[in-house]
Amino acid sequence: xxxxxxxxxxxxxxxxxxxxxxxxxxxxxxxxxxxxxxxxxxxxxxxxxxxxxxxxxxxxxxxxxxxx
Amino acid sequence: xxxxxxxxxxxxxxxxxxxxxxxxxxxxxxxxxxxxxxxxxxxxxxxxxxxxxxxxxxxxxxxxxxxxxxxxxxxxxxxxxxxxxxxxxxxxxxxxxxxxxxxxxxxxxxxxxxxxxxxxxxxxxxxxxxxxxxxxxxxxxxxxxxxxxxxxxxxxxxxxxxxxxxxxxxxxxxxxxxxxxxxxxxxxxxxxxxxxxxxxx
Lengths: 68, 201
Known about the structure:
The complex is a heterodimer.
Chain A: H1 2-6, H2 11-23, H3 27-43, H4 51-65
Chain B: H1 2-12, H2 16-37, H3 41-58, H4 68-89, H5 133-144, H6 148-159, H7 164-171, H8 175-193
């Protein structure tokens, strides 16, 4: 299923899988759930680190870069 | 890539705004991946800090043969492995966490291997076609409960967006192993979201 979503399933397998999808009650919904799940994971933007960590890293960058 | 090259040049030139953007972009994911190798939050923090220092020091020599992102994560994985090995030597034994449990409840399938009944669906957000807001709030905690191997693969593939070949190289996995881990991880996350279907916050 993972390969199908990524388009890396070999041709003959893809045909068999799609034939299965056409007559299986559960799989099409499951596949769509997976698409949504992966899509949602792709979209997640996590927050930056807390201000202290950010400051510490910027300081290190400043020092090590030898900048102003 | 033009855009990335310009960004790398800014980083090399000491542009603090650019560095701040870089940190904001990757720090959380670096922590997540670190945590799949080391045992404690504190160790993960150390590893990530060392990684950022390594990035800053290595910028001049970075040849842009890989993407910046790949390079940063390769530094992380190296440091995380070193730290994990070091920490393991201080333990009487190391606990190997493997998760071979079936990713979907076996009871969901009948004797003929087909679905016993149509499985409940994950609710979607009508605007985006992706998961509903309620389910999205549970997504990261579901990922966090995965075994380290599965967590590492799903984080690098689906959260960070690295391609399969790079993840295989980073984690020293065969293509087949990586695919199995990814599939199991995603299926487990889906299962973990099931109790929240139908919950309105």
